[in-house]
Amino acid sequence: MLVGDDVTVLDATGKFVMPGGIDPHTHLAMEFMGTETIDDFFSGQAAALAGGTTMHIDFVYQSRAAYQRWKSWLRRKGALMINDELLLEGLKKCKSLGALAMVHAENGDAVFEGQKRMIELGITGPEGHALSRPPVLEGEATARAIRLASFVNTPLYVVHVMSIDAMEEIAKARKSGFFNSYIYITCLLC
Length: 190
Known about the structure:
Structural class: alpha/beta
Radius of gyration: 20 Å
Low-confidence stretches: 65-70
Strand content: 15-25%
CATH class of the largest domain: Alpha Beta
Order of helices and strands: EEEHEHEHEHHHEHE
Strand order of the largest sheet: 5-6-7-8
CATH topology of the largest domain: TIM Barrel
Mean pLDDT: 81
Number of domains: 2
Largest sheet: 4 strands, parallel
Shape: globular
Helix content: 40-55%
Distance between the termini: 41 Å
CATH architecture of the largest domain: Alpha-Beta Barrel
CATH superfamily of the largest domain: Metal-dependent hydrolases
């Protein structure tokens, strides 16, 4: 290809070329547990575009039974949290269907204790949310989900990763060699 001296040519052989980022897990105009997300599709996409994200895949909210098969919650004790037995069942089902298992990993029992502690201390504002769930709890739940996925030999997608502890567990699993081009772990950072 002939180009002028003022043109920079980038070799993209073997690469994916996209006009912007893709957010594979958004919650736009979604009602959830008595609340609704602040962004609708217009404002959410406008905000994403300002940050370089040109496409999003909005999350489809399923029934509780579906969560036990597709997206597993290890958090929200008494609401959406599942135990390890149900997580294993869901991982096995995803493997049998060739589906990608998704998990939002927090130690729900320990977070519940942290929430009670915040209330006892009179910390009931937004800061209590972060204080009730220190990074070590997300790291522990992420490590547990990864180990159970490796036990079942199925891919895992960890969503809403918010801590260094969880990211380190994901990086360690990716470097371990167990997760390869056929069995892998990926995550969505918040």
